[in-house]
Amino acid sequence: MKFLWTTIYVKDTEESITFYSNLLGLQVQKRFTAGPGVEITFMGNNTDNETLVELLADTKNKEVDFGEFISIGFAVDSIDTMLDTIKSYNIPVHNGPVETPGSKFFSIKDPNGLSVQLFQQK
Fold it and tell me: Is residue 52 within a helix (H) or strand (E), and if so which, with residue range?
């Protein structure tokens, strides 16, 4: 069995695409209308074995609340470089950076309030 995607309800598709592409390097793989007022965008890195991020926008449901107990994580080459990058976009650090014997990580919020963890394996 393969884990295919994680769905994120978004308030603004364009703002979310910009966040995930500019900051995290994901590319739009597929984008389509899935019914009246509903748009779906799949984002990833064009690899066969990756899990995609699905952005789902519904004009009938603009309220999004993820709470504090769910996050998505991305591997990065350098936490220090990513900290500089998010500062250049004026994105505040939500949590961290935290350093453990084998890793460093911190969290930010995406435009919809979802916690995004950036993780560096040492």
Answer: strand 52-58
